[in-house]
């Protein structure tokens, strides 16, 4: 018993769980068994548990434009402005635009552009995940104008799920009797929930569902289809 | 372990507190060394405490996973933490000095013992110490230090390196 190889797996996990994500990403390369251990969901849970007590408040912001070479740059700092992490996303990943950023007190950042495309980003692992478009009822034209009134983003600890919800308004035209997406808060509000289970930056499950379907608009049938 | 030390009625007159302090226990390492330790200090290890409660009291407790050198260190730690007059500040200072002189090999041995004997405070501190030493090190350093053989093919390794290229930025040199 002279080395770490003799430590039982749970003790190795206890040690590795205290490492920063950057070291962990690198140490996946050490051996197959370390790679498996580090990627295992139970390890990610253990790590979240160990980390929670030492979690620091961070500020995260997103820039794009001339000074970032037209690419999207994500920066995380602590509350005193000390840089924790900064990196640029691949050039075409978001058509070079960010409309709104929804930082959370959790590990992930959610943002969307004027086309209504929503992304989740884990700044620690630099992974980025495009969420499924909530509804086919939102046509290309609507995408262009951006269909959302608002987007919410949060974490449900009981289900270990991050959830992103978008509020979309529909209105029926008197003349054509067709439902249109509203750009004002009048009319029927629909809440579309897109949930993604993201543990340690890894996408495990993704689903979309709708709530409060009116059952009348063409959107509802297709929304229900995504469930 | 035979319960040969089961107290005859007469011995129960000794007040319990005093009894705990004065009574000693023998811990036997994997290489046959025997160490005497007070019951109150030994009780800080959940594993030993359970063994004492299982009526091993008074006997020799064999610890086949801990060698003599490591056991001596663990006992030093336990004695300090069981010391009557030691304040939390004293203990913290002691822990700092206790661990700071240890090489990675020794830390791993102590971690193994801390885990096996279920001494949470010690195990936590040792883990943190190991982590501080390794977090900025290269993959090669980790393999060499912890004697881990890579079982990846060159392609698999390349794939991970490509996927997490950013994680290779700012790694310490292996020289030290």
From TrEMBL, chain A:
This is F-box/kelch-repeat protein. Coiled coil: none annotated. It comes from Sesamum angolense. Residues 1-46 form the F-box domain. SMART domains: FBOX (SM00256). The lineage of its organism: Eukaryota, Viridiplantae, Streptophyta, Embryophyta, Tracheophyta. InterPro entries: F-box-like_dom_sf, F-box_dom, SCF_F-box_component.
UniProtKB/TrEMBL annotation, chain B:
Pfam families: Skp1, Skp1_POZ. The keyword Cytoplasm does not apply. Gene3D superfamilies: Potassium Channel Kv1.1, Chain A. Residues 25-82 form the SKP1 component POZ domain. The keyword Membrane does not apply. Pathway: Protein modification; protein ubiquitination. SUPFAM superfamilies: POZ domain, Skp1 dimerisation domain-like. Keywords: Ubl conjugation pathway. Residues 121-167 form the SKP1 component dimerisation domain. One of its GO terms (biological process) is protein ubiquitination. Involved in ubiquitination and subsequent proteasomal degradation of target proteins. Together with CUL1, RBX1 and a F-box protein, it forms a SCF E3 ubiquitin ligase complex. The functional specificity of this complex depends on the type of F-box protein. In the SCF complex, it serves as an adapter that links the F-box protein to CUL1. Part of a SCF (SKP1-cullin-F-box) protein ligase complex. PANTHER family: SKP1. Belongs to the SKP1 family. This is SKP1-like protein. It comes from Sesamum angolense.
